[in-house]
Amino acid sequence: MAPADVARELHDMPANRRAEVAKALDDDKLADALEELPEEEQVSLISALDTERAADVLEEMDPDDAADLIRDLPEDVAEQLLDRMEPDEASDVRMLLNYAEFSAGGMMTPEPIILAADATVANALALARAEEVTPALASMVFVCRPPLDTPSGRYIGAAHLQRLLREPPSTLVSTMLDTNLEPLSPQSPLAEVSRYFATYNLVVAPVVDDQQHLVGAVTVDDLVDHMLPDDWRGDQMDELAPEQVNNG
Amino acid sequence: MAPADVARELHDMPANRRAEVAKALDDDKLADALEELPEEEQVSLISALDTERAADVLEEMDPDDAADLIRDLPEDVAEQLLDRMEPDEASDVRMLLNYAEFSAGGMMTPEPIILAADATVANALALARAEEVTPALASMVFVCRPPLDTPSGRYIGAAHLQRLLREPPSTLVSTMLDTNLEPLSPQSPLAEVSRYFATYNLVVAPVVDDQQHLVGAVTVDDLVDHMLPDDWRGDQMDELAPEQVNNG
Fold first, then answer.
1. Rounded to an integer, what distance in angstroms lies between the CA atom of residue B59 and that of residue B49?
2. Cβ contact (<8 Å) for A190 and B220?
3. Are A69 and A43 in contact (CB under 8 A)?
4. B49: helix, coil or strand?
5. What is the homologous superfamily of the domain A114-226 according to CATH?
6. Chain B residue numbers touching A200 (CB-CB < 8 A)
7. Distances from the Cα of A3 to the Cαs of A49, A144, A199, A218, in angstroms?
8. What angle do CA B246, B242, A82 make, to 5 degrees?
9. In this predicted model, what pLDDT tens digit does every residue of A154-196 receive, in sequence order?
């Protein structure tokens, strides 16, 4: 069953039954489903688990979704959960919590595809085709000076997956960077990020701080999530005329 | 200069100067820039050209953008332009004009990547890497029974480019279809289309009519265009708080 369908099933259950089913799911299945639920249901589900289990589930979520959920919890609960999470996962989430929810920094994922300056097309394709990478994230690779991790790698540029497919496997990715592409700043507000995606017809975009560090990447599905009303899985939007949705 | 930047230059010019520059641009350069301008400026620019030239420029535009522009012209002018366009291009645009602007049919492109049931991964990659295909359209290929054209091919299914990259070149695409993916209907309203993209984290989605014909594909950049206010290239959205943009 796809995560969206598991989420739909959970959404349609009475709250007590929902907590029972959540407890019975694997950590990663529950994490995937949580990402698709309205925020208030995420909060009530996570609060129904004991701290250890809740921390395990948060570790399995995309860091940007985990950060959005943690933002909605009481401060002491949030701090307890972050303390129980693996240090690596917790530090990704803590970094995202530094940015406003509706900014590029608050929407981004800290785990885009990052390559060194001497990486080849073959190296890039090997990372892009990995099953755990989403189609949106796979559509662009980023080149950095080491360390090849956010938020400390120095950003050099970005190359489109589709462009890489036109070249022999031994070609250097750094010779195929898109020179027209300005990175987003982590402080860029939602309105600027939406205009940016619409202007450049992008699927994913680099987020670079003022010291030229690549801090993450915003994917267009995260952008659409943030452009929609919070309860978009309900029926509220069906009641709106297209003009209202469009001119909101 | 990127189309978005040409559009920005045109946008910042006085109207009479703008018409002069438009006349001096190549058909395809002007078409690309038009796609990035607010609709009222598109209308005034197209109206400043003679019918022959205007028809040539419309032919170079993405059919969905051309349809959106034609919708805003007086009916007799629209009919004249459609008559002067190449029959193939005109019929794509006429088909799109049958659907409401804020529906899947009105937003879709009629030219996604379409393959026959016996196509291989190598066939699919050869089409996906073509320079004129956008990164979003390249991220998914559609399998149809012949004819392999919208709106008459019978839809069989869709496969993710990223998935294809995991298989040997001789594998049949039809063995790698995403069975979880329900197609959109051309009548699906904007609210439903946005929920669909947010739920499935998609970049492009098939649009199939009730006779199982693939009529086109909606890409997420077209969706973002339609979710934004019409004058999103102006500064209006900067004035809005994130909550207003988000809850519109």
1. 14
2. no
3. yes
4. coil
5. CBS-domain (3.10.580.10)
6. 2, 4
7. 19, 33, 31, 21
8. 90
9. 999 999 999 999 999 999 999 999 988 899 999 999 989 988 8
Query: Which of B101, B127, B201, B219 to mutate against chain A (most A CBs within 10 Å)?
Result: B201
Closest A-chain CA to B201 = A221
Q: What is the largest CA-CA distance in chain B?
A: 56
Is A119:A91 a contact under the CB 8 Å cutoff?
Answer: no
Q: Which fold has domain B3-97?
A: MgtE N-terminal fold (1.25.60)
Q: Alpha-carbon distance B115 to B148, whole Å?
A: 7
Distance from CA of B27 to the nearest CA of A (A): 20
Q: Are A131 and B166 in contact (CB < 8 Å)?
A: yes
CB atoms B194 and A227 under 8 Å: yes
Q: DSSP states of chain A as a string?
A: --HHHHHHHHHHS-HHHHHHHHHHS-HHHHHHHHHTS-HHHHHHHHHHS-HHHHHHHHHHS-HHHHHHHHHTS-HHHHHHHHHHS-HHHHHHHHHHHTS-TTBHHHH-BS---EE-TT-BHHHHHHHHT-TTS-HHHHTEEEEEESS-STTTSEEEEEEEHHHHTTS-TTSBGGGG--TT-PPBPTT-BHHHHHHHHHHHT-SEEEEE-TTSBEEEEEEHHHHHHHHS-TTTTSSGGGGS-HHHHHH-
Q: How confident is the model at residue A244 (pLDDT cuts 50, 70, 90)?
A: very low
B91-115 pLDDT, tens digit per residue, is: 989 989 999 989 999 999 999 999 9
Going by the DSSP 8-state scheme, the letter that residue B235 receives in this structure is S
Cα atoms found within 13 Å of the Cα of residue B11, Cβ hemisphere only: 19
Whether residue B224 and residue A225 make contact (CB cut-off 8 A), yes or no, is: no
Q: Computed over its alpha carbons, how large is the radius of gyration of chain A?
A: 19
Residues B80 and B90 sit within 8 Å (Cβ to Cβ): no
- End-to-end, the C-alpha distance of chain B in Å comes to 34
Q: How far apart are CA B90 and CA B109, in angstroms?
A: 14
Helices and strands (H, E) in chain B, number of each type? 15, 5
Instruction: State pLDDT tens for residues B181-220.
Output: 899 999 999 989 988 887 777 889 999 999 999 999 999 8
Same fold, B3-97 and B114-226: no
Please name the residues in contact with B150: beta carbons below 8 A apart, sequence gap of 6 or more.
B95, B110, B111, B112, B114, B213, B214, B215, B216
For residue A129, give both structure tokens. Answer: 């085709």
Residue type, A227: M
- Measured between CA atoms, the residue of chain B closest to residue A2 is B180
**Which residue of A1, A133, A163, A224 is the best one to mutate when testing the B interface, meaning the one whose CB has the most B CBs within 10 A?**
A224
Dihedral Cα A145, A148, A151, A157, nearest 10 deg: 50
Domain extent listing, chain B: 3-97, 114-226
